[in-house]
Amino acid sequence: MIYTSVLDGRLDLGRIALARPLDDELVAWAKHAGGPVLEPPHDPNLTHFRDPFVWRRPGAWQTGQRMGQACGFSSPVAPGIWAGTSSAS
Predict the structure, then answer these.
(1) In angstroms, rounded to a whole number, what is the distance separating the alpha carbons of residues 60 and 9?
(2) What range does the domain containing 17 cover?
(3) pTM of the entire structure?
(4) Is residue 45 within 8 Å of residue 32, measured between CB atoms?
């Protein structure tokens, strides 16, 4: 599972983290030992970075996170969406 990990006082600037199930019933989970896998970009105008999502396209997994800036933001995917691609299965 990917999820938003936040720090006290900065609920709007999350870090993207991973957890894996420890049982088939999906009751117990273990956080990724390396901590968050993606930090917010270093940008003084960034106002939020959170809410990851994943989708599969032929031959690649893609991820996106909601992010925005006080002065406005746009990306090739959609306004307020950052995206990346992995060829891992």
Answers:
(1) 35
(2) 2-86
(3) 0.66
(4) no
